[in-house]
Amino acid sequence: MTAVIVGLLPTEELALLKCYIKGKREPDWADAFYDAIGVPKNPIPPRLEVAVAQILLHHVQGSLPQWSAAIGEEIVFLNRKEHKRHPNARLVFNPKLVCTINWADSGPGYSWPESYHVTYLPGFDKFVITASQDGPDVFGCSDQAIGFADGRLDPVEAAREVIVGYWCSQSNSCEQKRWAYLFNEGLIDKKTANDWADEAWPPEPDEAISETGSA
Q1: What are the residue ranges spanned by the domains of the chain?
Q2: Model pTM score
Q3: What is the 3-state secondary structure (H, E, C) of the chain?
Q4: The pairing of beta strand 96-107 with beta strand 75-78
Q5: 165: number of Cβ within 10 Å
Q6: Cα separations in angstroms, 183 against 64, 99, 162
Q7: pLDDT tens digits along 166-198
Q8: Residues in contact with 62: Cβ distance below 8 Å, sequence separation at least 6, in sequence order
Q9: More confident: 206 or 178
Q10: Is the pLDDT of residue 206 over 60?
Q11: What is the torsional sign of CA 54, 57, 61, 63?
Q12: Which long-range contacts link 16-23 to residues 24+ away (Cβ below 8 Å)?
């Protein structure tokens, strides 16, 4: 890890990123730091995974999925809450949108979007992949790190490795159905996103025949 990276990252952020990448035990002060930057108290993912995502996505959080509702003419309710970074943080990360999917439409104006970003973590030579929802309704948080990959990979391949694994784990652990459609393209297009989904949710034989037009 270079001295430049160490100098640009506050000690607390650096320590937590090391914990995530190297699987080390979180320091005793971690919960107080999580509170300070707005990590929810009891999310389903570990707070460390949420904190890592919030640190990496901080400067793009305004572009992440956001559910909102107007109450009357003046009050607007935002489901996603703004989060903070350490006041001494000087390193701005550069997350790249992979794509945004919609898991389902549960009613007019009620979609379940999830966007994926891949962020190169300098000094660690890793890509960290994050998932972002439009609020804390599902996981008790809006953002979480879902895995990391070797920094020597192409960023798209790094994202594929982690995202497909994330979808497979959801399919296997809670029988999550395949997402409905793509909201936004990023580093990958609609066809690639669907190819990745086929890895997690292989088409049934009848579906495969229908797609190829074979008898």
Answers
A1: 3-212
A2: 0.89
A3: CCHHHHHHCCHHHHHHHHHHHHCCCCCCCHHHHHHHHCCCCCCCCCHHHHHHHHHHHHHHHHHCCCCEEEECCCEEEECCCCCCCCCCCCCCCCCEEEEEEEEEEEECCEEEEEEEEEEEECCCCEEEEEEEECCCCCCCCCEEEEEEEECCCCHHHHHHHHHHHHHHHHHHHHCCCCCCEEEEECCCCHHHHHHHHHHHCCCCHHHHHHHHCCC
A4: unpaired
A5: 16
A6: 12, 8, 20
A7: 999 988 877 788 999 999 999 999 999 999 999
A8: none
A9: 178
A10: yes
A11: negative
A12: 16/48, 16/51, 16/52, 16/55, 17/52, 17/55, 17/121, 17/124, 19/48, 20/48, 20/49, 20/52, 20/128, 20/145, 20/148, 21/121, 21/124, 21/126, 21/148
How long a stretch of residues is the chain? 215
The predicted-structure confidence for 146-174, as pLDDT tens digits, reads as follows 999 999 999 999 999 999 999 999 888 77
Instruction: Tokens 């003046």: give the residue.
Output: 74
The answer, yes or no, to whether residue 215 has pLDDT greater than 60, is no
pLDDT at residue 1 tops 90: no
C-beta atoms surrounding 18 within 10 Å? 15
